[in-house]
Protein: Glycoside hydrolase family 28 protein
Organism: Agrilactobacillus yilanensis
Amino acid sequence: MQIFNVLDYGALGDGQTLDTTAIQQAIDAAALVSGEVFLPAKTYLVGALFIKRHVTLSFQKGAKLLGSTDIADFPEIFSRVAGVEMCWPAAILNLLEVDNVTIKGQGIIDGQGPHWWQLYWGADGHGGQRQWYDTHDLRWIADYAIKRPRSILVFKSEAIIIKDITLQRAGFWNLQLTYATDVEVKDIIIRENNGPSTDGIDVDSSNHVHIHHCQLACGDDCIALKSGRDGDGYRVGIATSDVEIDHCQIKSGYGVTIGSEVSGNIHDITIHDMTFENSGCGFRMKSAVDRGGVIENIRVSDLQMTNVQFPFSWLMTWHNQYNHKTMVDLADKPAFWQAVAAQIPEAQRFTKVQNITVQNVTAQLAADYPLPARAFDLKALPEKPMEQIRFSNVKLAAKEFGNIVAVNDLQFKDVTVSVQHDNTLANDAYDNR
């Protein structure tokens, strides 16, 4: 395979001079011969880069792509953001309608997240641009209107391998797979993500995906499976299916999550041999009355959790403030407001959860663990209760039991739960910011 060194195309790698054009020229040249683009161990300040089909991007150990803090360096492209099709800033690395691409090597992609996090919620975590939307009862549109670059976007692509790299300090999501098929993500590290919506890996209306042997520490969901939000997700109607997640370490954040955007359905998922330490959640499912969709045929096994607040948080009425849309006059608003505001047919409302199997799970707390801990939060709606839920060989230690609401055909076999006290009402509002 022919190697294309980015230094030969004028990249400086000094971390201060914008190297986008030079690196893109190397990518374009490699695409002509299905070659490999090589990043030597330097720091390259970049905006959006667009990987071409049959190209390998290889990082030397110590090589870093440092995302620009100028939004103008990330031209707007059509993709999907948090379950809604719209134009939004491109990512640092973009794989758009390509195939047979590999991204590899022990390098780093650094999104310079603190710049974007402060833009969103201010230096104190309570201001920034987000404050205006909260003040005007527009929480539901804030995440779409306050634009921040993702680190890697894979969109309408297939036969993709992403391995060995480290993603850190993302402006928004770290790695997004949307309308993708035949993707392997392995041995990557995601770390230092303490900002808003800094998901680790989002698998969105995609299939035949294998995520394994990764280590994730995030400010939001570490691995999230999604299939479209509300009316826009229902219109697209593409499910996420045939996903295997295994042998990963979850170090912080909200664990492995199905949701919250599930209007296109999620089915046939396998999650096994995972460890969770000091995370907010373990295996999580979340949706809302406007989502619709079906979550079914989920197999979860061999999880070890230590100091996890909510080992099983399955909430079909999650975060009402975020999901409730105040119906303002949309006539003079950008098109994406209308897309986010779109509702599903009333008859399709409420998410159905069925045929979920969980086995071989241990969750324990340190004696001095300071945070709340709730064994179960399984809450659906009477109109569409959860059904065929099986827990076997599960041992949980928690401070409180939690809730089980609107669940039919729930079976516990060899399940042991130890709790310290009654439920604390404040824990019903977990992750509602």
